Amino acid sequence: MNDNYGMADCPIPAPETEFKYTESDVASNFEIEFGVGVDDHKYDCKSYVDVNADLGGAYGMDVAIKNQNGEWIALEEIRAVRVIIRGEYERNSFRHALQKVGLMTLPIYGKMKTPEEQWKEENAIREQT
Asked: Is 51 helix (H, G, I), strand (E, B) or coil?
């Protein structure tokens, strides 16, 4: 995130990442950042999501969190949020989810074929011609 706008002073530091992507919308002054953590030992692996609506013109966010007692706590008009995702398996799930979201936003979306499926399809077309 653009640390000039307040995420640098977050009490939870952003972890080291293998991959990071930031998207900022100038019109709304809204910024979101995804960081896939470095593959580390179990619990030490940390990925994160930053959502920053504190850039001047973005609407405040409503956030609900569930505490260790299973109770939900709702917070309104939140300006920025950092979520740390711990763990190797969680890192992999997070990375796969980001990849799937990316695929779902493509103009043409369909089942991805394995190289073998692709070869069979192309071979069948060659045999027909």
From this structure: strand
- How far apart CA 116 and CA 121 sit, in angstroms, is 9
Total number of domains constituting the chain? 1
Q: Is the pTM of this model over 0.85?
A: no
Contact 87, 42 (CB under 8 A): yes
Instruction: For CA atoms 46, 48, 54, 60, give the dihedral sign.
Output: negative
Could you give the CA distance from residue 49 to residue 98 in angstroms, rounded to a whole number?
11
In Å, how far from its chain's centre is CA 25? 16
34-70 pLDDT tens trace: 999 888 778 789 999 999 988 777 888 999 999 999 9
**Quick one: tokens of 2?**
């653009």
Which residues make Cβ contacts (< 8 Å) with residue 113, sequence separation at least 6?
121
Residue 22 belongs to domain spanning: 3-128
